[in-house]
Amino acid sequence: MTGCAGRDRYAPTLSAAEVIGRVQGVVSLAIGPDKTVYYALASGEVYALGDDRPALIATFPTAALDSIAISSDGILHGAYRDAGRLTVATWVDRAARGFLHLRANGPAQIAYNKNGDLLVAVGDRLADAQGHVISNGWHSPRIAAGRDNRIWVADDAPGTEKELVARGREKDGAKRRRFASALPPHTDPSGIALRKDELLVCGRRLGRVYRLHIGLDDVARRRGTLAGLKCTNAIVVAPDGAVITATDNAILRYGAR
To answer: Consecutive sets of 10 residues in the chain, 257 residues long: mean pLDDT of each?
Structure first.
């Protein structure tokens, strides 16, 4: 495993927190092609943040909505669990239309990569939009699409095992761990996002954002925390480089400077 210490010359410069939403219980954030920020609640509702007040745009038929994602053409997708089964659905014509059903042995997350491919993390594995397994042996993976076809994973771990940031397409578990970076103990990662050559990990336990730099060797090395940033539930990066996080009672925006 890898680590890094010393002066942090890659640290981004961000503005102070701006509260863009007063809301509790956010489970997922997403940004649309028009830069609109969306948030989801476990009860199934999805809202769009606007200048006035949040607008309800979808209600998925569930009490366990885990994640949302927006495709490049602006279609909202939701991932939710019921009776041990995960459903991934689009929201079209005021209705959820499920197109992928997988066994769910833990929380799920969905994300789109730059090629427009849907990625699914559920329980101990990563899968594509057809349900084909990309890699397995995870504990509770949070995913971010990287450059080209890469996938980055922030993985929780039980007991005394180390929580890691690793390459998601690496099928060999031993090799994956060898080129992974350990997170601080009890980080409890709830989200991960890519900003340029940096990975930002939201730590639920302490409410911090941990940053890792992706080197030319395609290894992400931990650089420390982003001072002043708060995050417990979810994290995304806007096209302009702003970092948007969800805490227990607010959605915060840290603008790029």
So the answer is: 56 93 97 96 97 94 97 97 96 97 93 95 95 96 94 92 95 92 95 97 97 94 95 97 97 96
Q: Which of 160, 146, 161, 158 is nearest to 219 (CA)?
A: 146
Q: Which amino acid is at 252?
A: L
Q: Return the pLDDT at 7.
A: 56
SS3 call for 178: helix
Query: For residue 57, how many other CB atoms are within 10 A of its CB?
Result: 14
Q: Which two tokens stand for residue 22?
A: 């007063």
Q: Angle at the Cα of 220 (from 176 to 153), degrees rounded to 5?
A: 55
Closest CA to 23 of 254, 245, 243, 251: 251
pLDDT, position 1: 54
pTM of the predicted structure, to 2 decimals: 0.94
3-state helix, strand, coil in the chain (%, to 5): 0, 50, 45
Neighbouring C-beta atoms of residue 211, cutoff 10 Å: 22
Scanning the structure block, which residue is given the tokens 């002066």?
A: 7
Task: Residue 8: count other Cβ atoms within 10 Å of its Cβ.
Answer: 14
| Alpha helix ranges (H) inside 121-181 | 173-178
Q: What is the rounded distance in angstroms from the CA atom of residue 166 to the CA atom of residue 49?
A: 32
Give me the pLDDT at residue 60, please. 98
Sign of torsion, CA 55 58 59 63?
negative
Check: CB of residue 63 under 8 Å from CB of residue 81: no
- Cβ–Cβ under 8 Å, residues 198 and 237: no
Q: Which residues contact 50 (CB under 8 A, 6 or more apart)?
A: 36
CB 112 within 8 Å of CB 71? yes
CA distance 139 to 45: 27
